């Protein structure tokens, strides 16, 4: 069985040959339309696989010439294309006599099955032709032998044609040149819903109201156009008896019998094919939509990637600038900066200021695993902290002492920060050298003490002169009068001496070098022990006291000094209030400090007195010595605490903040 494959690409021919290779087929290849026509003239073919896009004669032109030849017009033609997939090109292929239209890339098994079926059709057609030819020969012989058998043969042929018409699934209608139906086969019942009798005599337009000519839009059927389209495969819209329309392919043949034109119309229902085409179109549109969505996603992904690249470049540039800034700060900082590994304590880098202050050379320090500065805590600090590399706690401005290469001990403020360098944990230590500041502060403190000594000496001289004058006067009086002293005079002199002793005692309490015996203990029990005494003093003047003691950690306290501090502030508060006032004593924890708060409801402290509070011998009381608040400030300083206050017309609040050290690592 001959099969012709026409394609201008040898690779495509090889692909077709690989798919259709069979002992039942004789595969013949042609690389152009002209070569295909030569093959058709020489041999008969069951199927022609024809490429649409070819140089010279294209597939459509080649098919048209093949169909124009009487001997080859019934050959089944399958168009194969990878480019022209539009409905217009497909319809053009069908109008030129193609039996199928396949798009590249094709499914090999589908193509193989289609060719197999068209070969079977060709074989059946050839068998029918051979039978018809034999039949004609027999009939001619019989005609020659017996003219009487002509009528019998005609009836036999009519019966055969009737059987063929009845068995065909396509509807076959014959009509005259006016368009009126002359005959119809039984398939009209299945296709149109009419009986054969209902169709006879009707105009063809009742069954085929619209026809597409030359792949144009559907137009009403016209007899003149029908006559001109004989032999062509046309699409039309058929009308069912129930009123619905459905697509069909029609092919019209023309015959002349005794000078009368008879037309035969073959009608094939292509609803399934159209549905498949519509499904393919929907699938194609869906694929287009998916491609469009995927393209949009890729565009968004590309845009996101571009932004990420830009951001990464920006981060890299910021990192470069950050490194550059850090290097400049590291090199030009007046502070001592060192970077050490937390893994082995190795010195990674030190800045010029570090080398300048310590006296070491760079080569003597870098890559050393042991500390060369011998950093230790400042002995004047209340907090006792560990500055080992093993700790991961950050340090902020801790007072320390460090030793230089020459053995000199310098004062400094230490701050640390933990960070990673290329996956290695490191510690950055910054020491601000305050040796000169400490020396200046010590000198200023010494000068302040000398100044304070002068002021206090004048105050003491003034305060003690009065009782001494009284005692001196009575002693002079006793010298001139040998009579024994009146007991009242003796009591008066003792009182004046006690007053002078009290002033001297309170003055000694101001001494900064006074020894404090501090132990780790809570603050609340001290207040609770003083509560009855303060309450009794308050009740004497018709006043009250309230305690609000919160949970506080332990801290280092001298119980006697703290008791004196609380009594002095509480009694001052009671004296500042009128009858009915309430004194509030409160404790709580705030920002890692223990806070003692003493609040009265007096008239407040005048603004002009605030700067002189705590100064020895300054008082607003008629009988006060001016040493009570000064002693309180001295006690607070010896405990490394902080005292401040808030005052208004509604009263005064004193705040004493002690460092919380119960949980400090020692």
From TrEMBL:
EC number(s) on file: 2.7.13.3
Q: Which Gene3D superfamilies match?
A: 1.10.287.130, 3.40.50.2300, Histidine kinase-like ATPase, C-terminal domain, PAS domain
Question: What is catalysed by this protein?
Answer: ATP + protein L-histidine = ADP + protein N-phospho-L-histidine
Residues found modified as 4-aspartylphosphate: 51
Q: Which SUPFAM superfamilies match?
A: ATPase domain of HSP90 chaperone/DNA topoisomerase II/histidine kinase, CheY-like, Homodimeric domain of signal transducing histidine kinase, PYP-like sensor domain (PAS domain)
Q: Name one GO molecular function term.
A: ATP binding
The keyword Cell inner membrane appears for this protein: no
Residue span(s) of domain PAS: 157-205
Note the coiled coil stretches, chain numbering: 273-318
The residues covered by the Response regulatory domain are 2-119
Name of this chain's protein: histidine kinase
């Amino acid at each position: 069985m001959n099969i012709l494959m026409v394609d201008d690409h040898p690779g495509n021919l090889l692909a077709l040959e690989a798919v259709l290779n069979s002992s039942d087929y004789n595969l013949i290849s042609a690389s152009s339309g002209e070569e295909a026509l030569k093959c058709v003239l020489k041999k008969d073919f069951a199927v022609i696989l024809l490429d649409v896009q070819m140089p010279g004669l294209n597939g459509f032109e080649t098919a048209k010439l093949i169909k124009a030849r009487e001997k080859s017009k019934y050959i089944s033609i399958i168009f194969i294309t990878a480019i022209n997939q539009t409905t217009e090109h497909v319809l053009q292929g069908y109008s030129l006599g193609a039996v199928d239209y396949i798009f590249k890339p094709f499914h090999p098994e589908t193509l193989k099955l289609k060719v197999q079926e068209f070969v079977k059709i060709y074989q059946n057609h050839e068998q029918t032709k051979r039978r018809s030819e034999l039949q004609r020969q027999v009939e001619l012989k019989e005609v020659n032998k017996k003219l009487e058998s002509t009528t019998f043969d005609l009836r036999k042929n009519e019966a055969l044609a009737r059987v063929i018409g009845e068995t065909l699934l396509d509807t076959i209608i014959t009509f005259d040149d006016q368009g009126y139906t002359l005959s119809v086969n039984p398939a009209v019942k299945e296709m149109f819903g009419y009986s054969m009798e209902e169709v006879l005599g009707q105009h063809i337009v009742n069954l085929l109201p619209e026809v597409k000519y030359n792949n144009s839009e559907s137009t009403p059927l016209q007899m003149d156009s029908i006559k001109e389209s004989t032999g062509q495969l046309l699409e039309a819209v058929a009308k069912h008896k129930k009123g619905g329309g459905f697509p069909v392919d029609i092919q019209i043949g023309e015959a002349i019998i005794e000078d009368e034109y008879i037309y035969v119309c073959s009608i094939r229902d292509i609803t399934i094919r159209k549905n498949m085409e519509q499904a393919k179109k929907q699938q194609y549109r869906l694929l287009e939509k998916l491609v469009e969505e995927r393209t949009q996603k890729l565009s968004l992904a590309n845009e996101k990637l571009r932004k990420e690249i830009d951001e990464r470049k920006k981060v890299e540039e910021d990192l470069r600038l950050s490194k550059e800034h850090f290097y400049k700060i590291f090199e030009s900082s007046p502070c001592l900066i060192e970077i050490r590994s937390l893994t082995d304590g190795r010195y990674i880098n030190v800045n010029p200021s570090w080398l300048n202050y310590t006296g070491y050379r760079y080569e003597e320090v870098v890559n050393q695993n042991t500390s060369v500065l011998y950093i230790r805590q400042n002995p004047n600090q209340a907090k006792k902290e560990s500055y080992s590399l093993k700790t991961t706690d950050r340090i902020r401005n801790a007072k320390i002492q460090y030793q230089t290469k020459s053995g000199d001990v310098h004062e400094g403020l230490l701050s640390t920060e933990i960070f990673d360098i290329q996956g290695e944990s490191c510690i950055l230590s910054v020491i601000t050298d305050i040796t000169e500041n400490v020396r200046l502060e010590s000198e200023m403190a010494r000068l302040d003490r000398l100044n304070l000594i002068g002021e206090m000496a004048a105050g003491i001289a003034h305060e003690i002169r009065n009782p001494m004058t009284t005692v001196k006067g009575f002693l002079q009086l006793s010298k001139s009068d040998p009579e024994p002293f009146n007991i009242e005079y003796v009591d008066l002199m003792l009182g004046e001496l006690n007053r002078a002793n009290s002033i001297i005692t309170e003055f000694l309490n101001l001494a900064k070098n006074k020894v404090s015996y501090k132990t780790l203990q809570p603050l609340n029990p001290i207040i609770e022990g003083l509560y009855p005494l303060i309450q009794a003093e308050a009740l004497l003047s018709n006043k009250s006291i309230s305690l609000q003691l919160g949970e506080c950690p332990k801290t280092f306290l001298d119980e006697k000094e703290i008791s004196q501090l609380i009594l002095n502030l509480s009694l001052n508060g009671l004296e500042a209030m009128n009858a009915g006032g309430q004194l509030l004593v409160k404790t709580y924890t705030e920002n890692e400090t223990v806070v003692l708060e003493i609040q009265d409801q007096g008239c407040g402290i005048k603004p002009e007195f605030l700067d002189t509070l705590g100064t020895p011998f300054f008082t607003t009381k008629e009988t006060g010595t001016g040493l009570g608040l000064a002693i309180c400030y001295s006690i607070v300083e010896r405990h490394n605490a902080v005292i401040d206050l808030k005052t208004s017309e509604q009263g005064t609040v004193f705040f004493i903040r002690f460092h919380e050290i119960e949980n400090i690592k020692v």
